[in-house]
Amino acid sequence: MQKLIFFDIDGTIIAEDGYLPESAVHAIHAARKKGNATIINTGRTAINVDAFLREIGFDGYIYGCGTQLDFEGKTLFHIEQTPIESRTIVQLIRSTNVAVLYERADAVFYDTKSRTLPGLENLLKIYSDKRVPFFDVPEDQNWCIDKFVIWYDNDSNLKEFQEGIHGKFDYIDRGNGFAEMVPCGYSKATGMKKMMELLHASSEQVYAIGDSLNDRPMLELAGTGIAMGDNPMLHPYADYITANLREDGLEKALAHFDLI
């Protein structure tokens, strides 16, 4: 029986500094060779999944916190905001004095008519170095987004912003004046559940591997949830705790469950 293995990216496959253990690459190759399906599950939209990660070879991807599902080169599901909904968010951003980066499957967008804060500038520099395409918000009336992130400070009207997205987007505060907006009802867990339904997989066939508390719903949905060794806060929600990334935790976990 084929197993589905869902992987978080940051802290699970690659370290914050970009380090990618050879053992992780070998383990993913071995898991596929054994007939298992390997699936990335990330908050990143498709354009922001690095080429070197894709080159490892995965069977599927859940992008943008469950807003897009691809498997074996085909898009099975993708939800976008309508152009009208997207323009409403643009006006809200401009009126509440926050900085923004809009995310879509094919590009990311900043807005020269809204604020710029250091966090946004730093991220655009990273995107430039990685050659991720980013553009100013166009006047095109068909323009739309999948999700977005903001940066805020004491001059931002955060209360008005949160009221403006209520019922449309979940507000996820990531700390240090940074927050992520995901359409209501979508998450890594909902994306994973939908992928399981589309592939007719039961929870007993499913393994999920993550390293931080935002991976908790993914681990709890899986038949077997695996936590990397770094974050004790996630460990109570895991069925198995492996070593950390730099100690070949991913490979050790897949070997433990005879997935490679």
Overview of the molecule:
The protein has 260 residues and is an alpha/beta fold. It is 29% helix and 24% strand. The protein has eight helices and 14 strands. The strands form two sheets. It has an eight-stranded mixed sheet. The radius of gyration is 19 Å and the shape is globular. 38% of the residues are buried.
Q: Care to give the gist of this entry?
A:
By secondary structure, this protein is an alpha/beta fold. It has helices at residues 22-33, 51-54, 83-96, 118-130, 158-165, 188-198, 216-221, 249-256, and strands spanning 4-7, 37-41, 60-63, 68-71, 74-78, 99-103, 108-110, 134-136, 147-151, 169-175, 178-183, 206-210, 224-227, 240-241. Helix content is 29%, strand content 24%.
Number of strands: 14
Could you estimate the helical fraction of the residues in percent? 25-40%
What is the mean pLDDT?
A: 96
Strand neighbour order, sheet with most strands: 5-4-3-2-1-12-13-14
Supply Rg.
19 Å
What composes the largest sheet?
8 strands, mixed
Q: Which H/E pattern describes the elements? A: EHEHEEEHEEHEEHEEHEHEEH
Distance between the termini: 14 Å
Number of helices: 8
Low-confidence stretches: none
> What would you call the structural class?
alpha/beta
The best one-word shape is globular
Strand content: 15-25%
